[in-house]
Design brief:
Radius of gyration: 23 Å
Structural class: alpha+beta
Strand content: 15-25%
Helix content: 40-55%
Oligomer: single chain
Order of helices and strands: EEEEEHHEHHHHHEHHEEHHHHHEEHEE
Bound molecules: adenosine-5'-diphosphate, the ligand C[C@@](O)(CCOP(=O)(O)OP(=O)(O)O)CC(=O)O
Shape: globular
CATH architecture of the largest domain: 2-Layer Sandwich
Distance between the termini: 23 Å
Number of strands: 13
């Protein structure tokens, strides 16, 4: 039986609140999906085996042989450092599960010979090499002029990532594309989507060698939401290279016992625009996380109190954002007028505007609550001696908040010197904040093109995505 090609796409993420806290089930995080997405294209082929290509990278080629008789086995042709753990684990475990789900005899008549092309939006990686080659600066305008899925001119090992979560978006798009291609799932069916989620979490954890918080895979599957993690035990028991399709399907199905993660849909309120910047200094997230957790372990009383207080302000930020969305639905005219008004003043001035109404007071509460979130992150920095919101980032964030119409400026996820995000109320504010970034000399601040986009994993058509067909 021959199948036509299949394309699945999954978004990157920005963790607005909940860094460090989301590692524990007691706390939650607010994660926003990005317009930057990964695409996996599966094309049936006459050549034997599974060929995987990542045309944006030097050495982005891997070949695998699949045998199902007498045993199910995926054998990579590459060895050592040229292997790709995320691609390999996606193929091995997804195909094993698909075979179980569609039935071994039905799977037996399908051809698995195919070419798989993986493409990540330019925003996932530094575009410095392309920009230099074209003699362009790293402004927003120059980036917007680059071709889609540009060659990074380097290898996956050496590329500078921008923190949108390439491995989670890649894994999710590849797992979903394989499941859909072999007709094992219908992504419009909630239980099937949950299976894709659980499988992508397993694959991602296996490939990275540890059970992490999983918020990045969750965002790649569900898009923007409030995240509460799953009990890590649910995966710990099957973290084994030899795990077979029967066991995988049993543990990863939507009805399977133990999956207690929570996903509460979330969207930024109307008129709120998320903009992002990559900071060239960079931080090594696992090092930051290791140090913070070591401090937490050594100082449980102080840390618990801080975690609880931060968790409570994180929840307040989320609640006010939800209240603002409700206010827009109830009183769209008033809401629009307030956004207009606030976009012409600095956030620090909103509390003293002459008008008083419910929407303005929500805007003021938002600024106030996010101020507390940042204060507590700085306290965490000082106590643990980990640069979560280091002084250089504080200065940059304060400069962004001096722009009229900036609501929030913060460090996403684990913080450090990696990135910042701002939420602004007008195009003018967007441009002005980007000017602040461009003129900032204390740190090298590169804008990203991504916007917030609440959509999770989807199937797409080749013609729907500019640049996709040309990259095949
Ligand atoms: N375009 C791509 N094609 C193939 N593999 C990719 C691609 N982008 C990322 N990966 C995989 O993800 C890994 C990066 O994961 P990681 O270091 O955890 O970064 P991130 O924080 O962006 O997820 C790469 O080494 C590679 O295995
Ligand atoms: C500290 C954390 O809670 C958040 C880290 O999130 P980031 O988005 O900062 O980092 P990457 O996933 O490495 O890109 C750890 C976790 O939940 O994995």
């Amino acid at each position: 039986m021959t199948l036509s090609h299949t394309i699945a796409s999954a978004p990157g993420k920005v963790l607005l609140t909940g860094g460090y806290l989301v590692l524990e089930q007691q706390f939650q995080g607010l994660v926003v999906g990005t317009s930057a997405r990964f695409y996996t294209i599966i094309t049936p082929s006459d050549e034997p085996g599974i060929q995987v290509r990542s045309p944006q990278f030097d050495g982005g080629n891997w070949h695998y042989t699949l045998t199902v008789q007498p045993d199910f086995q995926l054998t990579p042709s590459s060895s050592g450092t040229s292997r790709n753990p995320f691609v390999e684990a996606s193929l091995r475990f997804t195909l094993a599960l698909v075979r179980e789900k569609v039935g071994r005899s039905a799977f037996g008549v399908l051809s698995t010979d195919c070419i798989i092309t993986i493409l990540g939006d330019n925003d996932f990686y530094s575009q410095q090499a392309q920009l230099e080659k074209l003699g362009l600066d790293s402004s927003y305008g120059s980036l917007a002029g680059l071709p889609p899925f540009a060659d990074t001119m380097t290898s996956l090992k050496d590329v500078h990532k921008t923190g949108l979560g390439s491995s989670a978006a890649l894994t999710t798009s590849l797992v979903a594309a394989l499941c859909a291609h072999f007709k094992a799932v219908d992504l419009d069916n909630q239980k099937d989507r949950t299976l894709v989620h659980n499988l992508a979490q397993f694959v991602h954890c296996f490939a990275q060698g540890k059970v992490g918080s999983g918020f990045d895979v969750s965002a790649a599957v569900w898009g923007s939401h409030r995240y509460r993690r799953f009990n890590p035990q649910v995966l710990a028991s099957i973290m084994d290279q030899q795990v077979d399709g029967t066991l995988l399907l049993k543990h990863l199905s939507a009805d399977s016992f133990g999956w207690d993660n929570e996903v509460a849909p979330f969207k930024l309120p109307p008129g709120f625009d998320l903009i992002l910047a990559d900071i060239d200094a960079g931080s090594h997230t696992p090092t930051l996380v290791g140090k913070v957790l070591a401090w937490r372990k050594a100082n449980p009383t102080t840390a618990n109190a801080l975690w609880v207080e931060l968790g409570s302000y994180n929840s307040k930020v989320e609640q006010v954002l939800r209240d603002l969305t409700t206010a827009e639905q109830k009183e769209p005219v008033l809401y629009k007028a307030v956004i207009e008004k606030c976009s012409r003043h600095k956030a620090s001035e909103w509390a003293s505007l002459p008008e008083t109404n419910e929407v303005i007071s929500k805007m003021v509460q938002l600024v106030h609550n996010f101020g507390h979130v940042r204060r507590l992150l700085r306290e965490m920095s000082q106590l643990s001696e980990v640069p979560i919101e280091p002084i250089e980032q504080t200065q940059l964030l304060e400069a962004c908040l001096e722009v009229e119409g900036t609501v929030i400026a913060g460090v996403p996820g684990a913080g450090g010197y990696d990135a910042i995000f701002c939420i602004v109320l007008s195009d003018k504010a967007k441009q002005q904040v980007r000017q602040v970034w461009q003129g900032w000399s204390a740190l090298s601040v590169g804008p990203l093109l991504s916007k917030a986009d609440s959509k999770g994993v989807t199937l797409v058509e080749l013609a729907d995505v500019p640049g996709l067909a040309n990259s095949l």
